[in-house]
Every structure is written in C-alpha cells, then in structure tokens.
Amino acid sequence: MTxxxxxxxxxxxxxxxxxxxxxxxxxFSDIANHIVAGPDAxxxxxxxxxxxxxxxxxxxxxxxxxxxxxxxxxxxxxEPVSIENAGFRGLGRxxxxxxxxxxxxxxxxxxGCVVDATAPFINVTVFMRGMLVHAFTRLYFDDEAxxxxxxxxxxxxxxxxxxxxxxxxxxTATGPEYCFDIHMxxxxxxxxxxx
Amino acid sequence: xxxxxxxxxxxxxxxxxxDYKSTILRGPTKPLMSLSGGISEASGPVFARAxxxxxxxxxxxxxxxxxxxxxxxxxxxGKVMDGDGRPVPHTLIEVWQANAAGRYVHKVDQHDAPLDPxxxxxxxxxxxxxxNYVFYTIKPGAYPWGNHFNAWRPxxxxxxxFGPGFATRLVTQMYFPGDPLLALDPIxxxxxxxxxxxxxxxxxxxxxxxxxxxxxxQFDIVLRGRLATPMED
Lengths: 195, 233
Ligand SMILES: [Fe+3]
What we know:
The structure holds two protein chains of two kinds.
Chain A: H1 16-19, H2 21-24, E1 45-53, E2 63-68, E3 91-95, E4 103-109, E5 121-128, E6 135-141, H3 145-150, H4 152-156, E7 166-172, E8 175-179, E9 182-183, E10 193-194
Parallel strand pairs in A: 1-8, 1-9, 6-7
Antiparallel strand pairs in A: 1-4, 2-3, 2-5, 5-6, 7-8
Chain B: H1 23-26, E1 33-34, H2 39-42, E2 73-82, E3 92-97, E4 122-126, E5 132-138, E6 143-144, E7 152-153, E8 156-161, E9 170-175, H3 194-198, E10 203-210, E11 214-218, E12 221-223
Parallel strand pairs in B: 2-11, 2-12
Antiparallel strand pairs in B: 2-5, 3-4, 3-8, 6-7, 8-9, 10-11
Organism (chain B): Thalassospira profundimaris
Family (chain B): Belongs to the intradiol ring-cleavage dioxygenase family.
Pfam family, one (chain B): Dioxygenase_C
C-alpha cells in the first residue's frame, strides 16, 4: 500500500510567533535561530547576509530562510540540534521581517567539503507568503573558484545562471561577510533545485 | 545512506497559482534543476525530546495568563509516515494558528477580531516511536485576507515538519471537514489534484473525542519515502 504525499502549503504571513518567536519578540522558546555556529565552533566564523527579492525586485518582508550545513570538516551534525549549544549547531532559521532592509543574517562557520562533493556549500530553503511549496537552493562561496569549477552541480547549471548560487565575500571590521541575495524571478532568478 | 524518492509534484501546487495572487511575483518561474540523491539532502536536523517543553503540546494551556482560552477545545491526533506507510518517528512538529475569533497574535494581523489574552496559538510536539503525535488546541476561526473581494481563509492550523532529511521538510495546513470556505479558497485549491488536496482535510473522530472535554480530529501526514533499500525484510 502506498500513500500520497501531504501537499505543501504556504507558511503564510503569520509564521513568526510559531517558528521564529525569539527573533520577533514573542514569548515562546526557539528551536533554531540565526546562529548556526556559536562562538565555540571550530572553523572560520563568517556571516551570511541577503535579501529575498520578488519579481519586481522588491525585498520580501515575510520570508523565512532555513540553512542546513556541514561543520568545518564537512560532516553533517547527527546529534540533536539545540539553541543552547555554543558550538556547531548545523541548522539556522531567520525571518526577513525584523531588519530595516528586510535582510536575513546568519552567524555561522564556513563548512568543509562534504564527502560526495567537490566544493563547500550550504543548503538553503526559502519559505514565504505567496509560495505554496518551499524552494531549495545552494549557497557556494566565491573564494572557492577552483573547487567551484570542479563541482558537477554548479557545472550542470547554465553558465549564465551559475552566479546566482555564489555568495560574494567581503572582509569587514567585524569579520568575513558573504552576500547572498535570493531572486525569486527575473533575469537574475536564483537557480532552485528539485531536491 | 539512502536518499529519498523524488518529490511527487502531482501532490503539490505549482509555484505560480494565479488565483492566489501573491504567488505571481514570488514563485520561481524557471524550471527546477534536478539534484539527486546526495548525502546533503538525505541528512537533516534531529531534535531531542527536550526540544518539546512542558506545555508546548497543549495550546489550551501554554498561553494562559488569567484564565482559559475562549473557543471549542479540540485534540488533534495523527500519524507521520512515509509514502510506503512506514512511521516517521521522533520528528518535530511545529504548529501555529489563529484564535477562535480568527485572529493571530502576530503584530501585523490587522483583522478586527479580538485577541484572546489566554491564547497564544503556537506550540510543538514530536511524533513517538510509531510516528504518532497529539496536541491540544482551540479550533481556529476563519479570517479575511486581501486576496480578492470577500476572501476568507477556511479554519486551518499551520504545521511544520522536518522528517528524516532536509529533503523531507514540509510546511502544510490542516483543514476541517465540511468547511464551506474550502471550495472558495485559492490556497487550498492551489493543489490542483482533488484527491491530493483532500488529504489536507482532517477527519472528525468520535473515538478520539474526549468525554466532556474536547472534540477529536485525526490528521495523518505523509512525507516522501526513501528510495528502496536492497534486501529489506
Ligand atoms: Fe493562516
């Protein structure tokens, strides 16, 4: 006997007090937040910043981004995720409704390369009002040009769209920062994957 | 580690579903690129039992300030399984919803319906070793939204599940049987296949109904199955 999948539905505009309560100031505990790796985590500490842009190029104020990544050695966490963990957590979650520019910001470490890949990357999931099914993409790093050139996933993407998956590094006074804007539509539409 | 079966798109909505107007500028328009079977999509976050705290699974009690929340108490039972009927154990389920009057606690909810000081409307639970879960809440009210003239959302509870891998992630909504607004709701109707979208409607259950306390509903959730593993018993 097989069973049909339960259809996906939108998170709607009111997910904040259920899914990201701490960030939005609601009195409910978090299971994940924008900190993917706490201060004790090994590896290079980085920040990831971006906006979600709609088909008119306007930043989306009610999107939620989740990221799931390997640790500095390229290993996915198999122990439970906890926001009490000051080390590597692996999972991050951030809404775009609390920043003046509707950005998401993650504090994390640069992942190592996982065993079946050739370049380091972060799994990114996009949820928002107006999307009935969430969208998957990947964040690669622009300072890994040689590894990216060998990556079969990146190479399978049309060359003129590959850039949409590559975060741009800037070294700031508060540490390395990668910019990763997510374009839902338009001529810079981010590559999304059928995972 | 084995991967998961491909997403069954016949069970899901398209990204652009024009009757739901916000999809028009927000859904991806280009075809998805395939990405099959790596360890990255097969791995995913797991949570300890302790992630579900004292009253997280009882929304009739977890927002109390000075009394009981208003509305019809319900208890929602369900089983999380994969497409082959295998239970999905120990998976975290997050829920959020409007109160009995159709009002969300969310600061930008402009609907002119009363907040309930004793109801927050968010909680979480975890499936047990057999995939079964339960939470208590108040039946949510319908609420208007700006999609079109006289647009009202049917009564619904939002649910978010992780499942065993990043690829099985699911955010969905549970509806109630017999709701006349279902036939008019572009979000529910966004799933074109009638049999698929009817899986979003919970079933009233007199067996799960608790004498003198709460009406029972059953809402089973089916996540993507794993690819066949060789030599399985
Ligand atoms: Fe809702």
